[in-house]
Every structure is written in structure tokens, then in C-alpha cells.
Design brief:
Blueprint lengths: L16 E8 L2 H11 L3 H4 L1 H6 L9 H15 L12 E7 L8 E13 L6 E11 L5 E12 L7
Antiparallel strand pairs: 1-3, 2-5, 3-4, 4-5
């Protein structure tokens, strides 16, 4: 987990690219997650997965999405002191299967920052998050907006 200073809405700038680090997804994690949340045969059963169009076990897209969320938190891109969640996401795409043992690297590029006119203590930060595999192929992309405290926010 990051020990960086809190990041307020004004600290994000359009065009900034944040390195979110990397993470390796294991077969055990893929199967465990999928057994609980997305038990399709190509996620949980080796033989069925080998016979599928994927030719082997692949991670659930929802698992990949949550791996990205973890990376955003651990890297300090999201500051627990200033993050107020999200009003929604646009354009979620799973572009390539994620396989056991792959190392995924993430970035987040800021595309818009605005401070609310009616509630100046709130900012809206829009970013495009991308995960790439070791071959530098995009496997995941998401455009998302976060609600982030602005520097005008009153301390509690």
C-alpha cells in the first residue's frame, strides 16, 4: 500500500499518466475467484477450458477489473483520504484473455478534471485505465470517473 501524501482533485492534470505497477495472476487465484463469482467452465475446469475457444484456463473479466482496482489503490493513484467513489464507468473492454502466470502492468491517463461549481469541495477526475500483458498487448481498458475531494474540502 502506498504511503504517498493524499492526492486531491487539483493534483491530477489532464495528460498525466500514472504507473500503477504490475501484478501476476495465478491459476489458483483465477479458479478461486471464478468458482465463487463467475463459474464458467473455461475459468474453473482445466479440461473444459482446454476444449474451449480459449485453449486453457482464463481469468474472469470481473477478476481482471478488480485486479486493476487493487493496483490503483496500492500504487497511490487512489488516495483513501480523498477518494469518494465513482458515479460510473464508460467503455469497459476486455480485449484479450488473461492467462495464469501472466504479469499485467497498468497505467491510468487523466483525460478530464473538473471541480464542481455547486459543491466546490468535490472534484471529478476522469481517467482511462489500461492493463497490458508481458507482450505489451492491451488486455483491458476502462474509462472511469472518480469523485475526489478538492482542496476546498473542510477537514473532519
Amino acid at each position: 500500500m502506498s504511503s504517498a501524501a493524499p492526492r486531491y482533485a487539483e493534483d491530477y492534470r489532464v495528460g498525466d499518466v500514472f504507473d500503477l505497477g504490475s501484478i501476476v495472476v495465478t491459476k489458483e487465484e483465477i479458479v478461486e475467484f471464478s468458482q465463487k463469482w463467475d463459474p464458467q467452465p473455461f475459468h474453473v475446469n482445466e479440461l473444459s477450458a482446454e476444449r474451449s475457444a480459449f485453449g486453457g484456463i482464463i481469468a474472469s473479466g470481473w477478476h481482471v477489473t478488480l485486479l486493476m482496482m487493487r493496483m490503483m489503490n496500492d500504487s497511490g493513484f487512489i488516495s483513501p483520504e480523498t477518494s469518494l467513489g465513482s458515479p460510473g464507468h464508460d467503455g469497459l473492454k476486455w480485449l484479450k484473455p488473461v492467462r495464469p502466470g501472466e504479469r499485467l502492468s497498468g497505467t491510468a491517463k487523466i483525460s478530464e478534471v473538473r471541480i464542481s461549481k455547486s459543491k466546490p469541495e468535490l472534484g471529478f477526475v476522469t481517467h482511462i485505465a489500461t492493463l497490458r500483458n508481458e507482450a505489451s498487448e492491451e488486455v483491458y481498458i476502462l474509462k472511469s470517473t472518480s469523485i475526489v475531494k478538492s482542496r476546498a474540502a473542510k477537514p473532519r
